[in-house]
């Protein structure tokens, strides 16, 4: 009876099954099954195996099996497989097998590079004479994987298989954030609101995936053509085109590209097992049931969360197939496993109390020529997600917060700034005027140039986010030692060291930000304002994968299927965000007490509780102000304070006026700068136009000619920028292709009342 040797590749997103005969010829039809379409990975495995067996010619019998992929060890126990190999090995052998059997034309021995992009894993393998000589894999980030595409497909209600076909229809592919899936989804929404055609948006997604893969997986490695594209994503024509453009070479999509790991494993079994004595293949796993349960290891201080895989036969009885998730051999001892975790210990971070003598007033060094008496100052904090604005009334040393508001930036900072100015106008009492406007944030420079006509010597002050946030914290709490800011997309830490400030910010990853919470709340159809109360009802917060927001969300969905209570999952996420923030943003910092919490994410009671628990700090040591305006509007309030300080130095405002800002037409234009006196060629610099006239430029890096370094203050710079604008319009002949972004409709989210 002819024998078939089966390879099974169990990954994070799919189960793949393929078989070969003793000569490594394919037998039957290789099978690709998405895990998400089944109740569990084991159900997906059973479905894939059953489908493959139905494809076998009559009389063929499975002789042996082997496993690969991230789930290879557990699958080996379920199948009682003879072999298991790494994905690197299996992918390489899979390519060699289809070349050797004539399914793909390639010189022998095979040279080149395998580009493999799967559901949650990406890898690169360089082959020399058919042997892998170099490989690398992605980090714990979804941005360069198939999950990147799946998340966006789910977002717009489009089958993921349609993305490539539609993307190829693009005429002007959009620019989309390539560093984080969560931020890419944000960009995609903003482009939708601005009316960018779907093909242009989707090709932007494909290019972002290719860029992330090359940047983070390939890195500086020396690759050699030809390029063989493996994995489920290889079926996406848009990604193929984007990857070919990024690599500078065509990419070859081999036959059976999605299941080459399974084919390679099957060929390995045929070579190593055929003819050797081994137990017959046991297919009773198809009738058995498999479950998993969570236990906590008390064997050491790691307090590992262990998943026990259980097998139950129809005749009764069961056994533990494997124990997964332990960091040491003690996790394999049943006596160390318990239903409840050990109490969470505070993180051993260096923390010190701030000495009273070290307290300082950051405004004390400024010369104070006059006092602000019954005057109003505004602040605008232009962020990537939300634009905050604030109005304060100052009377000598006293201060009153008149109001704080938030406008959704929605990818259009120009419109958001205009809406913020309108919001300030609504807060300002009739007959009153502004004595100064402070701006900060990623769009702070843009906001300043739209709002103020002055130069640097005026009360309208552009400050860094670090100064603005610390200014507000130190005004509220003069002895503040550390400021932690946790927003929707950004996170930062500011630590006072005597008379100096140390700071750090996140690196364009959503894992330690409020965007992570919003994504999970949306997954559970939970209003974000209800999140904190529900999470605080947790009994044992779950261990959530916190290094990537998308993978963390997948982890929560998986644990939800296992029966974890929703409060435990939500509180586990809050703890994961805290630990990610402390390990990334606060890495290497010695915290000074007290800590002041700022940013919208800290309005979530569960997040505050997680930080206090993990750091082992009380309410007096980790402070969140009871007024939510002071928390979410800290940057804008700090900017307003700094504008007041400029006024008290004797400077006057150059505020253009509410009617002028709201009535004038502003737009930003992306340009490519080339000047006859400069050897550089700067791509992506931006000009700000007011009524069609350039008034400012941004994006240069130490330009020797002073171009695109803020407000245009000379006729020479204005003439050059106008020349670039004329050249760009003449080159493209289409306003949509020039990179113009005029203001559009925006949603005023809220004006925060005093509690």
| Main beta sheet strand tally, sense and closure | 6 strands, mixed
* Unreliable stretches: 733-738, 741-750
Q: How many helical elements? A: 21
Tell me the count of domains.
5
Main sheet strand line-up: 20-19-16-17-18-32
Question: In what range is the share of β-strand residues?
Answer: 15-25%
The tally of strands reads: 32
Kindly report how far apart the N and C termini lie.
80 Å
* General form: globular
Q: Can you give the helix content as a percent range? A: 25-40%
Radius of gyration: 30 Å
- Give the integer mean of the pLDDT values: 86
Which structural class do the helices and strands define?
alpha/beta
Task: Explain what the structure shows.
It is built from 21 helices and 32 strands. The protein is of the alpha/beta class and 755 residues long. A six-stranded mixed sheet has the order 20-19-16-17-18-32. The chain has a five-stranded mixed sheet with strand order 3-2-1-4-5. Helix 6 runs antiparallel to helix 7 and helix 10 crosses helix 11. The longest helix has 21 residues. About 2% of the residues have low confidence.
């Amino acid at each position: 009876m002819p024998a078939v040797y089966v390879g099974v590749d169990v990954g994070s997103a799919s189960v793949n099954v393929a078989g070969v005969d003793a000569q490594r010829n394919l037998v039957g039809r290789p099978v690709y099954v998405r895990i998400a379409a089944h109740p569990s990975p084991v159900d997906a495995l059973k479905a894939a195996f059953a489908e493959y067996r139905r494809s076998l010619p009559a009389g063929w019998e499975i002789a042996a099996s082997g496993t690969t992929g991230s789930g290879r060890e557990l699958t080996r126990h379920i199948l009682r497989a003879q072999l298991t190999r790494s994905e690197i090995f299996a992918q390489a052998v899979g390519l060699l097998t289809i070349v050797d059997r004539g399914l793909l034309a390639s010189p022998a021995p095979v040279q080149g590079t395998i580009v493999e992009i799967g559901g949650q894993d990406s890898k690169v393998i360089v082959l020399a004479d058919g042997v892998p000589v170099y490989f690398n894999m992605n980090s714990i980030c979804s941005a360069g994987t198939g999950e990147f595409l799946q998340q966006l497909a789910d977002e717009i209600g489009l089958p993921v298989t349609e993305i490539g076909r539609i993307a190829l229809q693009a005429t002007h592919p959009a620019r989309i954030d390539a560093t984080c899936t969560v931020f890419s989804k944000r960009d995609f929404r903003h482009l939708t609101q601005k009316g960018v055609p779907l093909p242009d948006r989707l090709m932007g997604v494909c290019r972002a995936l290719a860029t992330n893969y090359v940047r983070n997986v390939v890195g500086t490695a020396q690759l050699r053509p030809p390029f063989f594209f493996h994995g489920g994503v290889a079926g996406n024509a848009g990604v193929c085109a984007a990857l070919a453009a990024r690599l500078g070479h065509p990419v070859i999509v081999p036959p059976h590209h999605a299941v080459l790991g399974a084919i390679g494993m099957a060929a390995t079994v045929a070579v190593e097992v055929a003819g050797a004595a081994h137990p017959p293949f046991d297919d009773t796993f198809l009738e058995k049931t498999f479950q998993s349960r969570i236990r906590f290891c008390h064997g050491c201080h790691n307090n590992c969360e262990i998943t026990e895989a259980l097998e139950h036969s129809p005749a009764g009885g069961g056994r533990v197939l494997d124990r997964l998730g332990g960091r040491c051999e003690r996790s394999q001892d049943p006596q160390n496993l318990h239903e409840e975790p050990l109490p969470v210990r505070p993180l051993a971070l260096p923390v010190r109390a701030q000495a009273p003598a070290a307290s300082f007033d950051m405004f004390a060094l400024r010369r104070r020529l006059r006092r602000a008496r019954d005057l109003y100052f505004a602040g605008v904090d232009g962020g990537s997600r939300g634009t905050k604005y604030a109005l304060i009334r100052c009377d000598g040393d006293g201060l009153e917060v008149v109001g704080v508001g938030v406008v959704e930036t929605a990818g259009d900072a120009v419109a958001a700034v205009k809406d913020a100015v309108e919001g300030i106008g609504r807060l300002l009492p009739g007959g009153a005027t502004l004595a100064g406007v402070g701006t900060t944030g990623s769009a702070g420079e843009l906001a300043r140039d739209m709002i103020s006509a002055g130069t640097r010597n005026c009360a309208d002050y552009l400050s860094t986010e670090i100064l603005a946030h610390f200014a507000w914290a130190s005004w509220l709490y003069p002895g503040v030692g550390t400021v932690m800011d946790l927003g929707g997309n950004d996170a930062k830490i500011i630590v006072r060291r005597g008379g100096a400030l140390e700071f750090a910010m996140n690196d364009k990853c959503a894992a330690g930000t409020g965007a992570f919470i919003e994504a999970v709340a949306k997954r559970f159809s939970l209003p974000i304002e209800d999140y904190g109360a529900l999470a605080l009802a947790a009994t044992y917060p779950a261990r959530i994968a916190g290094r990537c927001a998308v993978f963390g969300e997948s982890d929560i969905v998986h644990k939800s299927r296992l029966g974890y209570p929703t409060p435990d999952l939500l509180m586990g996420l809050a703890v994961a965000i805290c630990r990610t923030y402390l390990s990334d943003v606060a890495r290497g910092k010695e915290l000074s007490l007290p800590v002041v919490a700022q940013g919208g994410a800290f309005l979530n009671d569960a997040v505050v509780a997680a930080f206090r628990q993990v750091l082992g700090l009380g309410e007096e040591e980790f402070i969140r102000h009871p007024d939510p305006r002071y928390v979410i509007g800290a940057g804008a309030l700090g900017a307003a304070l700094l504008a007041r300080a400029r006024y008290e130095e004797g400077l006057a405002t150059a505020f253009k006026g509410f009617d002028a800002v709201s009535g004038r037409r502003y737009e930003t234009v992306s340009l490519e700068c080339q000047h006859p006196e400069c050897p550089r060629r700067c791509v992506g610099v931006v000009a700000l136009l007011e009524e069609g006239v350039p008034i400012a430029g941004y994006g240069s890096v130490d330009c020797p000619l002073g171009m695109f370094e803020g407000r245009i203050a000379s006729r020479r710079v204005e003439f050059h920028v106008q020349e670039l604008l004329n050249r760009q319009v003449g080159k493209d002949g289409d306003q949509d292709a020039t990179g113009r972004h005029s203001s559009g409709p925006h949603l005023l989210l809220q004006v925060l009342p005093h509690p």
